[in-house]
Amino acid sequence: MTSSPHLLNSTAPLxxxxxxxxxxxxxxxxxxxxxxAERVLRMQKELGxxxxxxxxxxxxxxxxxxxxxxxxxxxxxxxxxxxxxxxxELVAAYQPFSHQVETLRAVRSQLMLRWFARGSKSLVVxxxxxxxxxxxxxxxxxxxxSQLGEHTLLVDANLRAxxxxxxxxxxxxxxxxxxxxxxAELDIIAKVESFVALSVLAAGTLPPNPQExxxxxxFVTLNKQLESRYDVVxxxxxxxxxxxxxxxxxxxxxxxxxxxxxxxxxMADVAAMTEQMTHSGAQVVGSVMVDF
Length: 292
Description:
Distance between the termini: 53 Å
Largest sheet: 7 strands, mixed
CATH superfamily of the largest domain: P-loop containing nucleotide triphosphate hydrolases
Helix content: 40-55%
Low-confidence stretches: 1-20
Oligomer: single chain
CATH topology of the largest domain: Rossmann fold
CATH class of the largest domain: Alpha Beta
Mean pLDDT: 85
Number of strands: 7
Number of helices: 14
Structural class: alpha/beta
Number of domains: 2
Order of helices and strands: HHHHHHHEHEHHEEHHEHEHE
Radius of gyration: 23 Å
CATH architecture of the largest domain: 3-Layer(aba) Sandwich
């Protein structure tokens, strides 16, 4: 049992010298053993190929292992299927190279150019009806922003039927409502360990007066505080059809991204919502259509 630490210490410098940090990361993550690392190094030297390629040829790792290590090397974290406690619908976490996530990244790029690059930092993600998938879209969008290296905060401002605490498996009982009521400070914001640059502020205690709470002037101060701490602040809010909560949050954030559902969201409702948002002082930055 005492030989393994010694072998690891003697092998690690060879791995680092031979293939930058790929070999070291594969060792650290347990994808290969120190003994197998020596086999890989020998093949690498004989054939003049990369460490990862040699490990693949020997059948010690898979393409998925290489992708995951490269993601860590380039600060682009994601999870293997089955890892973590998040729902599989959080595709940005589990399927970063899928068509769905490519689309998410395209949305992110548009938002960076049209909204965040112009000095804005806050954005409301809004669905028209409950069940339109806006909360899950907001969660995935927050993940891809964090993967870009933007310090991202996802705020669950749905004080009626919150979802983000469940999606990100948060243990905290306090959240936005408690901060607005003066019962908690910003140290209750949870950092999502699986993603270096992502934090979540849960909804907190469900209040009897969510609309009035979100309309308080203290929300203006809170939003400014959050914008000073994060590059991107995304607000998940109740669906537009459920009341005026979304209007109150949008007036503070300044911008809205509409999530419409294919073959379900009426265009007339979208037009009415856009007009009402404009009257409240918020800009509808864009819209996305989801299909499920």
